[in-house]
């Protein structure tokens, strides 16, 4: 790919974890909107759709400080959207060293690179910094993570808050969507596939989240860049739902037999890492300051369904 981005006058946005679900949606939105130039970075080779053009891709493992500093030196981005993270909560619990390296050490390198370029640093965090005793949470609520993933994200938030230039922390929860060559599944894809294969699926009805369409999250991140908004912002959907509710809505949308969906609760459902029960995020601040307005969960499933049908990640 030609590096004409270096000569472009548009502000540059460097995205970490661009092979991931959110990363791909951010690159796509930048290409569609045309306001920024995108530098997509990822661990290993590019896994974005082959037909996408007009952005640069750099292999950049965030745990490798030298690699990170070199990429920042080449591009000197105005904005950095730091989406790369070890996101599998149960793996984080058992592979603590690796989790710390990806989530904390890696972010230190991104902070160093951003500082050298005085970039506006936008960091992706999680509802799992909370204990789930009294959600949904706003930006002022007190964190108290229950699992190791949440602890590393909270520790990283504190590092970001000491960044000397513009910083924004974006807290989100239960992100769903589909993207090209994904390394992880999410609730809608998992339920759809399981029911199509006539499996019995167990879903908890005592955990609450405000599920977030990946496109909405990408839009929220870019609204932050557009407005130069700093501080902490919750960016998520608005409906407080349990995974059981989400599974039923998914079955109904795709016309699948809901008999395969069995209700359970967290005390019976063995998960390696403890999950906060009632989280979910209050998004009034993002609505007021950014003009952010997420889709309903049903509309979100509709968008995803269209993309699955067309295997279309362009529109
Ligand atoms: N998904 C959710 O439900 C959720 C909820 C709350 C917060 N968040 C936060 O939102 C952000 C985006 O999540 P997502 O849904 O897009 O997750 P994702 O699909 O798992 O994407 C994360 C990306 O980070 C990359 N990555 C991991 N370690 C890396 C490293 N050392 N160097 C470079 N890249 C690395 C992964 O690379 P590979 O593809 O090579 O594995 C992956 O592409 C994350 O910061 C996450 O903590 C997500």
From TrEMBL:
This is dTDP-4-dehydrorhamnose reductase. It is an enzyme of class 1 (oxidoreductase). PANTHER family: DTDP-4-DEHYDRORHAMNOSE REDUCTASE, METHIONINE ADENOSYLTRANSFERASE 2 SUBUNIT BETA. Catalyzes the reduction of dTDP-6-deoxy-L-lyxo-4-hexulose to yield dTDP-L-rhamnose. Pfam families: RmlD_sub_bind. Keywords: NADP, Oxidoreductase. Its EC number is 1.1.1.133. CDD domains: dTDP_HR_like_SDR_e. It catalyses: dTDP-beta-L-rhamnose + NADP(+) = dTDP-4-dehydro-beta-L-rhamnose + NADPH + H(+). The keyword Oxidoreductase applies. Pathway: Carbohydrate biosynthesis; dTDP-L-rhamnose biosynthesis. It comes from Cyclobacterium jeungdonense. Residues 12-306 form the RmlD-like substrate binding domain. Belongs to the dTDP-4-dehydrorhamnose reductase family. The lineage of its organism: Bacteria, Pseudomonadati, Bacteroidota, Cytophagia, Cytophagales.
């Amino acid at each position: 790919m030609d590096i004409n981005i270096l000569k472009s006058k548009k502000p540059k946005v460097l995205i970490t974890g661009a092979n991931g679900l959110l990363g791909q949606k951010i690159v796509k939105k930048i290409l569609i909107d045309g306001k920024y130039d995108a530098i997509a970075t990822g661990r290993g080779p590019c896994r974005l759709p082959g037909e996408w053009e007009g952005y640069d891709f750099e292999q950049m493992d965030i745990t490798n400080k030298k690699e990170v500093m070199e990429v920042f030196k080449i591009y000197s981005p105005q904005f950095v959207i730091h989406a790369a993270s070890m996101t599998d909560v149960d793996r984080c619990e058992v592979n603590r060293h690796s989790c710390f390296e990806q989530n904390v050490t890696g972010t230190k390198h991104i902070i160093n690179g951003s500082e050298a370029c005085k970039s506006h640093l936008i960091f992706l965090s999680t509802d799992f910094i909370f204990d789930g005793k009294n959600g949904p949470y706003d930006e002022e609520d007190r964190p108290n993570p229950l699992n190791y993933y949440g602890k590393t994200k909270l520790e990283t938030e504190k590092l970001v808050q000491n960044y000397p230039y513009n910083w924004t922390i974006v807290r989100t929860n239960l992100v769903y969507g589909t993207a090209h060559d994904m390394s992880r599944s999410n609730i809608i894809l998992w339920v759809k596939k399981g029911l199509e294969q006539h499996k019995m699926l167990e879903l908890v009805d005592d955990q609450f989240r405000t599920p977030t369409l990946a496109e909405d999250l990408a839009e929220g991140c870019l609204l932050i860049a557009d407005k130069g908004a700093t501080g902490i912002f919750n960016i998520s959907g608005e409906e407080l739902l349990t995974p059981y509710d989400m599974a039923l809505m998914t079955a109904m949308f795709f016309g699948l037999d809901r008999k395969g969906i069995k209700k359970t609760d967290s005390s019976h459902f063995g998960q390696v890492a403890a999950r906060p029960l009632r989280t979910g995020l209050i998004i009034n601040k993002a609505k007021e300051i950014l003009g952010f307005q997420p889709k309903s969960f049903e509309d979100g499933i509709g968008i995803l369904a269209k993309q699955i049908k067309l295997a279309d990640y362009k529109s």
